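Q: How would the structure tokens look for this protein?
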Amino acid sequence: MPLFSGTGLTPSLKGVVTNVIALKAGQVEIIQPAGWYMVSPGLYTGIQQYDPITGIWRSIGGSGNQAGVEYIYSDGVNYRLANQNGCVVGAVLTNVGSGYTSAPTVTASAGGAIFKAIVGGAVSQTVTVTNAGANYTYAPIVQISAPPAGGVQATGFCTLSGGAVASVTIVDQGAGYASAPTITFVNDPREGLNGTTVGYNAAATTTLTGSGTITALLCLDHGTPIAYTAGSATSIPTLSFSGGGGSSAAATAIMNWSVVGLQSASYANGTSGITGAQAWATGIDQPTSANSTVLNVAVQAGLVKTRQCSLSAAISAGTLPAYSAWVVRDGGIYTGTPLLIIGMDQVTTPGAQVAALATMGYFASDTSYLTQL
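A: Here is the predicted structure in token form.
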């Protein structure tokens, strides 16, 4: 990796106009020209890589936005910074429907996110082990061949019994396969080292399922951020299905949004027993549960690197302030709407706890820094 070093030697822009990228909510920027970069994403901006199989952009990098500096090699086309704050970024299928002969049109009630539904072509959860193999010390890696472009990759893992493959568990059933994929067992690289045995000959086959149902729903474009009103709830947009010859498909949008305040009159569980001068609030993400008919975790989770929010407020005369008086230190990143738990620096009533409802929305802009190495 090319680097810079030495007293008085600083990195140049190397022909790039600027090393500071400000993105308003909903905007993206390709990381170009090609080369090695040191990237410090903004608080609400993430690094994404284009997935040529599904056609969606996937989050990469650290455990959370602004988790630190990331080193990446961009080809100048398939890597980008994305401020998706306030936008729809995916969907969880809650009902796969039935009778679909073609892909239905999926419309979001707000934000204009563009979706692609896939009908059929999922790998069955039942995999037949045709040859258990022998001598395996470690369970081999299960590789399932990719579907045509525009589909979803199936994934799985296997378990051993007595050095042989006993079963294969499908984690992602995939979508859009035209024929049953091949399953390949790749030895764990530790096989044969330190006196261990080397496994061989495991084989398995599978079939397709999901005909006439929606097997995956992909967000190709996150659209624009959802407008919100201070002190109100700001609901997750609804997704509607039309056409395709089938019925009953349903899904819940996955958001990338933040806490921008509290809903008016949202305190719950009472506010008695409060003393002290300071209160704070945070909340845990509450993702939507997917329908178990078709499992596709990879495109229904992990699209957002979540982070808890941090709010604070001053306590006056033993009373929590109005919702508008809370200061958002960090809006966090959520896929749904969290219930905020409020803590105080002192309470006179043991076990006193106050909850509040969050106003969800987005922050106007975010700044990231890039250095081409």
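The chain has a mean pLDDT of 89.

The two ends are 8 Å apart (CA to CA).

Upvote if useful.
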